[in-house]
Write a structure and sequence with these properties.
Low-confidence stretches: none
Distance between the termini: 44 Å
Largest sheet: 10 strands, mixed
Radius of gyration: 20 Å
């Protein structure tokens, strides 16, 4: 039974941390190293880490000056001793058999990494990310396609176990203000050759209203488009037959940003408003013809072109259009 290093960056999560760590402590797979990195958290999170370490000698706690989640994960990667690495966000929690099940698959398949389906936890209600049943053996290109379509996976660092030599060969970007998971996952794809996807829901992703990716629009949200340009260039250079898939993912990103901007009171004064809207209008025909883009997203584009004001009203009413 190989040692699995579970890396948990900790920052301002005093209301979530104990549940998260207990879900790791109580895993059916016992040969664990649980690395908690207190990233200079101003609340009681650091103290809770120390208290948890007293309950279980598999827990190692590091306290460091605040440097962001990427720096915390990179710090832990240097310290990790396991043959496999698993990242867990400190406000999320695991099903108790997650690591055992993913480890068994990794050994059986000799996979570079194994990734599971997950549950979205919104206001204490649990919902599967996808209802499909699958067990997929994928190469680099096949996984990239799934990554772009986002039907079966979210593109995060969590929800998987990764061979340690592979995980340690990639660093999270410390100079990137947001979407650091997306950059890490992109680099992971480029270095992987055999990946397993399972539809079993082993990871529970807690949707917090105050999280970076769910907060109001900020200028740093535009960084998503920079990452996607990098991914698009890589995809079109290496797998040009995935053009519809990568442009579908690009469209999804533009819609996500547009939906944040349009909720601002003076959204037309935002310097990115016309840039994002013009992309969607300019690509209207391509969006309507792209078989990878779902029907409701195509309707969203048409509605936006007809009337931005009406689009905002519908968005406020139903919460999501794309």
């Amino acid at each position: 039974m190989d040692l699995i290093s579970v890396i948990v960056p900790v920052y301002k999560v005093e209301d979530y941390l104990e549940k998260s760590v207990n879900s790791i402590i109580n895993q059916t797979y016992k040969n664990l190293e649980i690395i908690l990195v207190d990233d200079g958290s101003p609340d009681r999170s650091g103290q809770i880490c120390d208290q948890l370490a007293k309950k279980d000698d598999r827990i190692v706690v590091y306290h460091k000056e605040n440097g962001g989640v990427s720096a915390a994960r990179n710090f832990a990667l240097e310290k990790a001793r396991g043959a496999y690495i698993s990242f867990v966000d400190s406000d999320d929690y695991l099903e108790l058999n997650m690591l055992e099940e993913l480890y068994n698959i990794a050994i059986k398949e000799d996979a570079d990494f194994v990734e599971s389906n997950f549950n979205l936890i919104l206001r204490s209600k649990k919902r599967k990310y996808t209802e499909e049943n699958y067990y997929l053996r994928l190469d680099k290109k096949e996984y990239l396609k799934e990554y772009l379509l986002m039907d079966k996976l979210f593109g995060a660092s969590w929800g998987k176990i990764i061979k340690a030599d592979l995980a340690k060969s990639i660093l999270f970007p410390i100079d990137q203000p947001i979407y650091e998971d997306m950059e890490y996952q992109y680099q992971l794809i480029k270095k992987s050759n055999k990946i397993i996807l399972t539809s079993q829901q082993y990871y529970n992703y807690v949707v917090r209203k105050d999280s970076e990716t769910n907060s109001d629009f900020k200028e740093k949200n535009m960084y998503l488009l920079d990452i996607l340009n990098e991914i698009k260039d890589y995809t079109l250079s290496n797998y040009p037959d995935l053009e519809n898939e990568v442009r579908s993912r690009e469209m999804y990103a533009y819609f996500g940003i547009f939906n944040q901007i349009i909720m601002l009171d003076n959204y037309k004064e935002n310097k990115y408003y016309y840039q994002v809207k013009n992309y969607l209008k300019k690509n209207l025909i391509y969006i309507l013809k792209n078989p990878c883009i779902k029907r409701n997203r195509k309707i969203s584009t048409l509605l936006l072109v007809v009337s931005t004001r009406l689009y905002k009203v519908v968005l406020k009413t139903y919460g999501r259009l794309n």
